[in-house]
Amino acid sequence: MAQLQSDTDTTLAEKSALLNMPKHVAIIMDGNGRWAKKKGKIRTFGHRAGVESVRAAVRYARKNAIQSLTLFAFSSENWKRPDEEVSVLMDLFNLVLNSEAKRLNKNGVRLKVLGDVSRFDRKLVDKIKRAEEMTASNQDLVLNIAANYGGRWDIVNAAKQLMSKVSEGELDIAAVDETEFDKYMSTQGLPELDLLIRTGGEHRISNFLLWQCAYAELYFTDVLWPDFDEQAFALAVKDFNVRQRRFGLIGEQVETAEIES
Ligand code: IPE
Ligand code: IPE
Ligand code: MG
Question: Where does the chain bind substrate (predicted)?
Fold first, then answer.
């Protein structure tokens, strides 16, 4: 599919609906270490190179009127990596916030960090807060960076908030359904997850958006994250464009609904 460019935002949004574009895409950005190793470099060289792919993914999402892009940058399990690698990843997160926050703001991108940020260094937490506040009113694209994020953490965190509301008498337990529960997930307010991409060749979720994946289309590619450019993103979206999402219905029901709408 040709990339949509040069039109106004409204036209882009209309076109994306027509072309069956995903509103919310999430990416497990995997393969940095192996990419570096293939080049005879240390793993962290791959993490640094991966920053350019993040820029490319944001560019692609903006050009194609994707409303929400969620990138898995650091999992709750990644703390178990060697100290040196964890420390480089934290430094990189700091650096990228310094260099990109203003540019994202200028480009109408709203930045959100999903995950338990309480484990991060105070300075980093402040920086995250400032970037989130600065970009809070931007409407073109929501860029969610999942950092110290775990899908199970997200569900437990939501359950805890719900339980506290119930115990304080602010919520009736009988009123807790999927819609109510969803209000406490870190992705609250974002469109439903349409497409989950994993680079780096592994076919697993690695504790990413477990609740949100319920009806997401999954796309796996062997491309290593530092090689994932706008073209590679376009291929994933092209694959999504032609899939039939049935949500439990049968194909004929979906086709009839499409004709009628
Ligand atoms: C993904 O790349 C980045 C993070 C998990 C932070 P990896 O570092 O997992 O790279 P591989 O999978 O070892 O190649
Ligand atoms: C998933 O990649 C986490 C991120 C991309 C941030 P991992 O490399 O940590 O996943 P596993 O360990 O191969 O499952
Ligand atoms: Mg990996």
Answer: 31-35, 43, 47, 75-77, 79, 81, 198, 204-206
Q: What is the pLDDT of residues 150-181, one digit of tens each?
A: 999 999 999 999 999 999 999 999 999 999 99
List, by residue number, the catalytic residues. Answer: 30, 78
Overall CATH class of domain 12-260: alpha beta
Nearest CA to ligand 2 atom 2: 30
Q: Angle at the Cα of 235 (from 57 to 219), degrees rounded to 5?
A: 85
Give the tens place of pLDDT for each residue, 90-134. 999 999 999 999 999 999 999 999 999 999 999 999 999 999 999
d(CA 137, CA 128): 16
Is 75 annotated as a binding-site member? yes
Between CA 194 and CA 26 the distance in angstroms is 8
**Residue-range domain boundaries for the chain:** 12-260
- Other Cβ atoms closer than 10 A to 190: 19
